[in-house]
Amino acid sequence: MEKIMSGNTSLDDLLFAMQQRNLVYNGDFRYYSNQVLTGGLVTYNCPDGWVFSNPGSFASVGFDVASNSCFINTGGSSQTVSLHQAIHEFPRWQQTLPGSYVSATVIMNVSGNYAVDVALTDGIDADTVTKSSGGDLQFDLQLKVNNNATGVYLAIECTVPNVRIKISQVYANVGMVAIGTLPGMVQGIIGERRQYVGTETAPAEEISLCQPPVSLGAGYTRLNSVVNGRFGSSGSGISLTPDMRGYFSRSWNNGAITDPDAGQRTALGGSITGDNVGTVEQDIYQKHNHPLIWSANQPGMNGNAGPVTVINTAQQSNTGDAGGNETRPKNIAELYTIKWA
Fold first, then answer.
1. Whole-structure pTM value
2. Are 266 and 279 in contact (CB under 8 A)?
3. Which CATH superfamily hosts domain 6-174?
């Protein structure tokens, strides 16, 4: 593994790095799709794009509003707690990263003089920086990505119990110096749904939702952190994409009366039901009636030999079948997709 310290960076290296993009998604921790609001209090949970490993089940992760940073509480276990991200998850990364230098910076605050590791690895080689001083810290890493790399990962780890780590910014890019102001490699928001009217093929950065569910395993960990099993999983925490073939979309009711049956909405592959995003309703007619107006004359008897017409007015009268195989408005078929990179 080769490493060149940022102090030796030339002007050419700086200019090259300025033309790159930030490989870290949500490195300023603004996106928390799986936050939960309970009684006016927000539980943020794991930030989008990141994977939180908590083997002892005592640690926690979330957002610290006061410091505007992601926090990790390592809890009472001495097992390694990790917050990490696969920063290679974008189309054709194999043509971009292997053989290139990747530089990364992590800025954090540690509650005491406890050992915290930050690692940049490609599955073969790694650069790891360990610091044991408390307070505000900056970790600078650099790795030449192996030509046989299986991916590139950035991880923040700690094995010391009861440490509070507040991470304010993480960024990485191709080049000899990490620059925190670069535009992101991901343009837009991971998990965003898009739609197309002129193609049946999803763009490279998106997955079609007009197909059977896709398992968000290796290569889709950042989207997996957003979907988080909402539409079911294939095991081991691997989420499935929703199967939206043939469905219309409806905006979330969110406690309004516009969708009167929102409380009875069912899950689309997962376990989330009721008035929540990603649930489904089957087609139905609103209660109504079809009045049938008619009259009948019942002639009386004409003498003792006249005709008698008898009409059974209690007998039902049907209007007959009408319509097609479903209830629908005029529509155009479109390709729905979800953004993963």
1. 0.87
2. yes
3. Galactose-binding domain-like (2.60.120.260)
